[in-house]
Automatic annotation (TrEMBL):
Protein name: Cupredoxin
Biased composition (Low complexity): 211-226
Gene3D superfamilies: Cupredoxins - blue copper proteins (2.60.40.420)
Signal peptide (from-to): 1-16
Keywords carried by this UniProt record: Signal
Residue ranges, compositional bias (Pro residues): 195-210
Spans annotated as Disordered: 183-240
Length: 240
């Protein structure tokens, strides 16, 4: 009975997002159900800053990392610690997925995690990788994430990916996204109604990108310090 309920839940969680089904052999499926359920792990790409949020996640085999693309024009592209801003041959690549002011849908790229080895991802747009727009899946520890960011910042330029690979592109509604977009840069430009702001997205993923405090460096510095003082924990839950 337990196994049947588990199967239904697994099916529900996997079909809840438009991604390829998790392919597991019968024994693999049983083992997986005994221990835990596959999770969908949101990662916000871009927004007020060129970042991945969070920039480190822990995922089990079968879990789905769902990159949700906020403001800008970003990619989630696999690389290596040695060449942080260059696509790994045969690696995962979302392609460039933009988000513009007023958009009510959010582009996503969902990839099924097939190994618990550390995986390195960067944004291949312009200088974003040199600005530190990188993230890791299953780092050996916090230090490896820092090392990866530093290595990325040390590069001169990025190499763009080619074909979309290793995942599925789709869309979700903005109300279901794990972020609130940056305010429109030029409210007059959109002409139409303001974007449908989701009132209160469920706090599944920490959307806590600090608000852009452009044009007031003093206030920004102070607010950064204040945020640091509170020391927000990473939203990654190791819940089973
Ligand atoms: C996103 O960036 C890529 C690469 O620079 C570019 O080819 C594409 O046109 C851009 N898309 C949008 C909508 O700006
Ligand atoms: C910058 O922010 C501080 C604190 O919020 C405020 O007192 C000050 O007037 C602001 N300066 C400008 C130029 O907006
Ligand atoms: C920034 O913080 C410092 C020290 O806490 C304070 O003296 C200063 O007034 C603050 N500035 C603004 C603009 O809030």
């Amino acid at each position: 009975m337990k196994l049947i309920v588990g199967s239904l839940l697994l099916a529900a969680s996997v079909s809840a997002i438009p991604a390829k089904p998790v392919m597991l052999g019968t024994s693999g499926l049983r083992a997986n159900l005994k221990t835990r359920q596959a999770k969908v792990i949101p990662v916000v790409v871009g927004g007020p800053q060129d970042t991945f949020n969070p920039n480190s996640v822990t995922a089990a085999v079968g879990d789905i990392v769902q990159f949700q693309f906020s403001n800008g024009n970003h990619t989630a592209t696999q690389s290596t610690l040695e060449a942080p801003c260059t696509p790994l041959n045969g690696g995962v690549n979302s392609g460039h997925i933009p988000f513009k002011d007023g958009q009510t849908d959010v582009g996503t790229f969902s990839m099924v995690v097939s190994s618990t080895d550390p995986m390195f991802m960067f944004c291949a747009t312009g200088p974003h990788c040199q600005e530190g727009q990188v993230m890791m899946i299953n780092p050996t520890g916090p230090q490896q994430v820092l090392d990866f960011v530093k290595a990325a910042q040390s590069t001169q330029k990025s190499v763009d990916g080619t074909a979309i690979a290793g995942g599925t592109t789709s869309q979700i509604t903005l109300a279901n996204a794990a972020f609130v977009p940056a305010p429109p840069k030029d409210p007059a430009a959109g002409g139409g109604a303001p974007p449908a702001v989701p009132p209160a997205a469920p706090p599944a993923a920490d959307p806590a990108a600090p608000p852009a405090a452009e044009g007031n460096a003093t206030a920004a510095a102070n607010s950064t310090a204040a945020t640091k003082g509170k020391s927000k924990r990473s939203p990654i839950l190791l819940a089973y």
